[in-house]
């Protein structure tokens, strides 16, 4: 027994606790992202006294900036994480950024801060700079959580259990997406502003606790097949870092001076693989669709139906809650039928449902009036939430399997652990790109041509993605076939 081991090392470094800690971190990140959306109109108009005609513009800029920050910070975070022996450190830094950002957002509407801003700057931006700064910090922290968290998860779970672990993590992600916007509007309308913000601070406290007690195992079990002629049977030492610079290959095959070439070969191999490209495209479109709808939904519902924060939150509930029930069956369906069929059907089914969302309140559809329009909108949103599990998570799952297969074929290029950081930075870049493009596209269309024509454009994008999925997605996951025949 190693007397130098910290207290509770065996259970604090267990796979169960690592997976649990990562899922709590992902839940906190998605919870905080969605928490602001239904109450943002109230914060801008009632507490910051922004003209209501400017609400959609500020909402678009705020959500777009979140995606932009994630886009540029994900590769940087992945690079820095490669240089860090322990992945717990970047996770804690991202937590600190998230905590500071959340406090800045919550206090951005405080009376004292507004008084100072009125003295220093009488422009509208002077009123919202703290709100924007806090959101930027949340965006960078969220990118760190996704990149490092998923890489740590993939590094510590065998390939045969990777699907289940990813599924559990995505369930918590979905719970965060559902819980954030659902409870924020309800708490605001029933209990007030500061009571509403006490809940995300409680979630952050839970996240702090989970990350502090977690310890990375000193020699994680990696599902990596090394060729028999690799030249050595030596196992890594117990003190080997999680992101060791030494790959399990011949000492003379690939020297340290070639690591720059190794990275270039890695990205060339990944970006020349059709399965990788369609996976990233799926991530981009899913993120753009969800963030675009989130961006315009509150203002549209206020303008068309006169709804306030509570009823707007219920619409987010209708959109997100089917994922909790249907994510598992959707994953089971993909395991049995492969990715192509279910994903293509999911994208195709979104087309008419998104078009139906645009009918209520539009002069071209008098049959979708006030009473009927509310039913049509709610029903379409619920149906859309029911088919989205077929397309959500497809990109991340396929990328995880692709990199596992490539690691087994060429461990010299796809080093242990480091490839997971790089591939999940690609996923985060795709996600952040979608989070930036979605609000930018929908906000511009909403203000220029209206909500209905905005849904027409979104429906067309989903149709194109359905075609791409049918042409390029796998009918079956090769790694699953290999395992079943082994």
Q: How would you describe this protein?
A:
The chain is an all-alpha fold and 486 residues long. It has one domain: Growth Hormone, Chain: A, CATH 1.20.1250.20. Helix content is 75%, strand content 0%. It has helices at residues 9-12, 15-35, 40-47, 55-82, 88-107, 111-120, 124-155, 159-191, 193-213, 259-271, 274-305, 309-337, 340-357, 370-387, 394-409, 418-448, 451-472, 478-485. Helix 8 packs antiparallel against helix 12. The longest helix is centred in the middle third of the chain and has 33 residues, at 159-191. The two termini are 36 Å apart.
Highlighted features:
single chain, Growth Hormone, Chain: A, 18 helices, MFS_Vesicular_Transporter, Major facilitator superfamily (MFS) profile domain-containing protein, MFS_trans_sf, MFS, transmembrane
Number of helices: 18
**Portion in helices:** over 70%
- State the low-pLDDT regions, or none: 219-257, 478-486
Can you write the helix and strand succession as a string? HHHHHHHHHHHHHHHHHH
Query: How many angstroms separate the termini?
Result: 36 Å
Provide the CATH architecture: Up-down Bundle
What summary fits the major beta sheet? none
Overall body shape:
globular
**Name of the CATH class:** Mainly Alpha
**Total beta strand runs:** 0
Structural class by secondary-structure content: mainly alpha
Here the CATH topology equals Growth Hormone, Chain: A
**How many independent structural domains?**
1
Q: What is the arithmetic mean of pLDDT?
A: 78
Rg of Cα set? 23 Å
β-strand amount: under 5%
The CATH superfamily bears the name MFS general substrate transporter like domains
